[in-house]
Write a structure and sequence with these properties.
The protein is an alpha/beta fold and 426 residues long. The protein has 2 domains: 6-45 and 282-406, Rossmann fold; 52-274, Glycerate kinase, domain 2. Helix content is 32%, strand content 16%. It has 13 helices and 16 strands. The chain has helices spanning 20-34, 52-60, 94-97, 115-126, 146-151, 207-211, 219-240, 254-264, 272-276, 282-287, 308-319, 352-357, 359-380; strands spanning 6-9, 39-42, 63-66, 69-70, 76-77, 80-83, 89-92, 131-135, 155-157, 176-178, 190-195, 268-271, 291-299, 323-330, 341-344, 403-406. The protein is globular. Pfam families: Gly_kinase.
Length: 426
């Protein structure tokens, strides 16, 4: 018996509620309620943010190394980095400086620090790694990477010779950048930053103005921070990289400017999906699918600018496969991300804490609703598929990092049809 459809489930994480793996499992549950014998290929996608280190460790036979470090508010947090199977390391900035580590009532992008990121890089060097990948995403900071550089030995002084306190806003008082104590091992280390190339440090599209409000900044605070980062870019360039554009080069604004700070000391800024999707054979998996379902916490004008659903849509278009997206919220510009259809998780108004707590349930229900709508559409085009199964409890499909999952009511035995418009005969 063949599956009625092959569906690739390729979501990112839903901030502060579901990892990419958990999101893929929830979507799979909803899809199987409608098509119990569908073949689902679960491909949870990390973007450098939460879950990146764990996912890459699992994919390479590596491990997570616990390492307490300084959190975004300056207090110690339980954190760690990944040692991969090839001996390289992954530092996930969200694990030590992510927005989820900053309580809502204490969010201020001008006060938080990336100091812990530098501590994790140093710990990875202590463990013998000479190739370190820093994943950028889900940050709660906007200090231009100043904290990370301080942890790696750079001194940042005001006019009186005192060390600057944590936070990007203090950079307006920066008078001296002293690189004399920079960890010498960096010179022999391949330091890579997986980042969104659309994010830049300064200017009208700089991180303070674009992302500062999401991190708790008032308009006045964000403008103050924008001025501070302009000063920081000039100081970094003079100290480390004369002639290099650390203001507006692609990726310099990654994770509140961490990209610029690390680039100044020799890191290479790379488009995150080129780095993080290696080894997934995503093009071939999309090419075998009849439908792709993706998702993330929000769909808006930023989706097409390096977010998971936008990247999935781009690659699916190349494969000629339609894409459905599920999101916690739909903002302005959601329809411009190249998606064929999209659906909000919430069936009606919900308080944010309740929506976050029920994210898996809401995502499964949204997947079911959306797929039933898709199947109605195929009937309207005059090519009716076999009747969808009545709603049933289904079973959450195990993902464990991805892989093919078959509906519990029937395994796949023959190749799937080439397009969603013509399901395989029974």
């Amino acid at each position: 018996m063949s599956p009625s459809y092959r569906i690739v489930v390729a979501p990112g994480g839903f901030k502060e509620s579901l990892s990419a793996r958990e999101a893929a499992e929830a979507i799979a549950e909803g899809l199987l309620r409608v098509l119990p014998d569908a073949e689902l290929d679960l491909v949870p996608l990390v973007d450098g943010g939460e879950g990146t280190a764990e996912a890459l460790a699992a994919a390479t036979g590596g491990r997570i190394v616990p390492c307490p470090a300084t959190g975004p508010l300056g207090d110690p947090v339980d954190s760690g980095f990944a040692l991969l199977g090839d001996g390289s390391a992954v530092v996930e900035m969200a694990a030590v400086a992510g927005l989820a580590l900053v309580p809502p009532d204490r969010r201020d992008p001008g006060a938080t620090t990336t100091y812990g990121v530098g501590e994790l890089i140093r710990a990875a060097l202590d463990a013998g790694a000479r190739r370190v990948l820093v994943g950028c995403g889900d940050s709660g900071t906007s200090d231009g990477g100043a904290g990370a550089l301080r942890a790696l030995g750079v001194r940042l002084l005001d006019a009186s010779g005192a060390e600057l306190p944590h936070g990007g806003s203090s950079l307006t008082r920066l008078a001296v950048v002293d690189p004399g104590g920079l960890d010498p091992r960096l010179a022999d280390t391949e330091l890579l930053v997986a980042c969104n190339p659309y994010n830049v440090l300064c200017g009208e599209r700089g991180v303070a103005r674009v992302f500062g409000p999401q991190k708790g900044g008032t308009p006045a605070r964000c403008e103050e921070l924008s001025v501070a980062l302009e000063h920081w870019a000039a100081a970094l360039t003079a100290a480390f990289a004369p002639g290099v554009d650390l203001r507006c080069a692609p990726g310099t604004g990654a994770s509140g400017g961490l990209g610029a700070g690390l680039a100044a000391v020799g890191a290479r800024l790379l488009p995150r999906f080129e780095v993080l999707l290696d080894g997934l054979d995503l093009a071939a998996r999309l090419g075998r699918a009849d439908l792709v379902v993706t998702g993330e916490g929000a769909l808006d004008a930023q989706t097409v600018r390096g977010k998971v659903p936008g990247e999935v849509a781009r690659r699916a278009r190349e494969a000629g496969v339609p894409v459905l997206a599920l999101a916690g919220s739909l903002g302005e510009g959601a329809g411009e991300a190249g998606l064929d259809a999209y659906e909000s998780l919430a069936p009606g108004p919900l308080p944010l804490p309740e929506a976050l707590g029920r994210a898996a349930e809401l995502l499964a229900d949204a997947a079911e609703r959306a797929l039933r709508t898709v199947l109605v559409g195929t009937r309207l085009r005059g090519r009716p598929p076999e009747a969808a199964a009545p709603a049933c409890s289904g079973s959450r499909a195990p993902a464990a990092g991805g892989g093919v999952v078959r509906g519990r009511h029937g395994p796949a035995a023959v190749p799937a049809p080439p397009a969603v418009r013509s399901p395989a005969p029974r």
